[in-house]
Here is the input.
Amino acid sequence: MNIILIGFMGSGKSSMGIRLSYQMKQPYIDTDKEIERTSGKKISEIFEQDGEPAFRQMEHDMIMSYLEKGVRNHVISTGGGLAVNEDNWEPLKKLGVVVWLRIRPETVMERLAGDKNRPLLQTEDRETRIRELMEYREPFYKGCSDVIVDVDDKPPERIMDEIFTKASGANRKKKRKR
Ligand code: S3P
Here is the structure.
């Protein structure tokens, strides 16, 4: 089973993805890292030099390439905007079980205080930006996901267990439907 982690910046998609891949003995893919590797640029440089739409296209192409290659039994973490693009919903759902790591804006503020790597958060009023962006994005994360795991105030082991248990249940259901 492929497990795909979606959700807002700072929700722990990468850190949980790495832990999960270790525990499940499944290879790990991070779409942001893959885009940086294949383009030879940092995400911030892509945003600056090519613009956000170009980055979103790269994200889409990346997901399509996993489907074409028939990537199986991986843990895949995505950038926070990838699931906001509805063109990615069907490919993601085909690829595996989509898990939304849901987080409160306050926790994002705490975790990403001082972050300089995320182009979308480099504004004067970061709190308002996070709140507005999250409010806008939540229906997309919901629509794209098979299961939801709340991450606030939980130790990583518990989050990991929940991801695994819920994803396994959803995977069984998906298989029955096919
Ligand atoms: C983005 C999130 C980032 C990265 C890019 C855009 C977003 O990934 O893809 O800066 O639109 O939310 P993380 O969610 O891993 O921070």
